[in-house]
Design goal:
about 425 residues; mainly alpha; two-stranded antiparallel sheet; 4 strands; about 0% strand
Length: about 425
């Protein structure tokens, strides 16, 4: 049911460290003519029953996911016992280090998988934010604020800016997050006179520093975005925050809901404080906060890669349309079946989601298959291994030009893999 027609049946170990064939095909085109596909063309290709939302199935997937999350938690409570069982009951100089090693491996395994589960909770809250869990608004609101609050995301504040993201995807003036820096931001010389050395003097950095920046972005970037609009649109004042009801991120009529989000976050923090007082800070860190950090790593990974790619354009002015923004999206089979089951198709069918935000996630694979013939070459798919794709985008998507209505990322040498066709320059 969840197979993809162009995803290779077998991927050898070395293939996860090279560009996927779909990416190579886009890169080799070198010039880009923006699509003229209309929303009506795409909608007409989708069977009507796929737009239907079922409260029963929406809640079924929510409770199923919560059961999986709790199962991971139960496993973690037995890690010490499992380790003791594997090394035996003795406590000598050989078994003690082995016990510690096995315990560390099991805890790391739990943190990674529970991080996926927490990311899936966030994904289901994302679905509720688009009214895709149920046809009843109250059900979506309750599910969304409970799930997002659990992972310390201010639901209504996030929902407001995320909906703005969908209304202006990859528009340089209207999109909300992962906004690309421009030539002026780096104080680079004019592109007509700049030489390679001009770029490397400003942009070149050691691999160790790049890894450090990637680590900070992966584990803390989302919370920094919520706190002070890090990597958000530069049209807002410095230190614009999702937690400030009067922030320019929100319309005046949204401010009460922002206060509700803040109260919910405060309540969750109080619960965590009480749990810390009752069970000790080490338990709360091991069972909640470390998985929560892993959740951010997975979540930032898939949200960043959805639109940030050297072959994907940004737009300004009249060149942007809703359909072109939706098509500035890359479907990726991130984490295989894990992305399907625990992340609820958020990366595998993200392009279809941008066209039809309220379609339930469990219908998106069918929607994707239905619209691919209409989209043709403008359906962007990439089977590149996730780590390689992340490193590629992080190191090659450096800046865009300050001028022009169709823009592609340029790398640390001022080079882009694609340019708009001459007719659109």
């Amino acid at each position: 049911m969840f197979t993809h027609s162009i995803f290779p049946a077998t991927m050898y170990w070395y293939q996860i460290f090279q560009d996927g064939p779909e990416y190579e095909a886009r890169r080799k085109r070198s010039t880009f003519t923006p699509p003229n596909v209309t929303l009506k063309d795409v909608r007409d290709a989708v069977p009507k029953h796929l737009f239907e939302r079922s409260t029963f199935w929406g809640l079924f997937y929510v409770f199923k996911h919560l059961a999986i999350t709790y199962t991971f938690h139960l496993f973690a409570t037995r890690i010490d016992g499992i380790s003791q069982f594997l090394v035996g009951g003795s406590n000598d100089n050989i078994t003690r280090p082995l016990h510690s090693l096995i315990s560390a491996f099991l805890w790391l395994t739990f943190w990674a998988w529970q991080g996926f589960a927490f990311a899936g909770i966030w994904c289901l809250g994302h679905e509720a934010g688009h009214d895709a869990i149920s046809s009843h608004r109250i059900v979506n609101s309750v599910v969304g604020i409970v799930l997002h609050t659990f992972v310390l995301t201010p639901y209504y504040a996030w929902r407001a800016t995320h909906r703005s993201h969908h209304k202006g995807t990859n528009h340089m003036d209207r999109d909300e997050t992962y906004m690309p820096p421009t030539r002026k931001d780096f104080k680079l010389p004019d592109g007509r006179v700049a030489v390679r050395m001009d770029y490397t003097e400003v942009l070149e950095e050691t691999p160790a520093f790049t890894l450090f920046k990637l680590f900070v972005r992966q584990f803390f970037g989302f919370q920094l975005y919520l706190l002070h609009n890090r990597k958000g649109n530069a049209k807002y004042p410095a230190w614009t925050s999702h937690y400030k009801p009067s922030s320019l991120l929100f319309k005046p009529e949204q401010r009460r809901s922002i206060i509700v989000s803040n109260i919910a976050i405060g309540t969750m923090l109080s619960i965590l404080t009480m749990l810390t007082y009752t069970f000790g800070w080490t338990s709360v860190v091991k069972f909640y906060f470390v998985p929560w950090l892993f959740q951010h790593n997975w979540m930032v990974m898939f949200t960043y890669l959805q639109h940030s790619d050297p072959t994907i354009p940004y737009y300004r002015g009249d060149q942007w349309t809703f359909a072109r923004g939706a098509l500035a999206t890359v479907d990726r089979p991130l984490f295989g079946w894990v992305g399907r089951v625990l992340l609820h198709n958020i990366s595998t069918d993200h392009l279809a989601h941008h066209f039809f935000v309220s379609v339930p996630f469990y219908n998106l694979p069918e929607v994707t298959e239905a619209i691919k013939p209409v989209l043709g070459e403008y359906y962007n798919y990439d089977s590149t291994g996730v780590l390689f794709a992340l490193w590629r985008s992080f190191t090659q998507c450096v800046f865009v030009e300050d001028e022009g209505d169709i823009l592609f990322f340029k790398n640390q040498c001022g080079e882009a893999v694609s340019e708009p066709a001459v007719d659109f320059l």
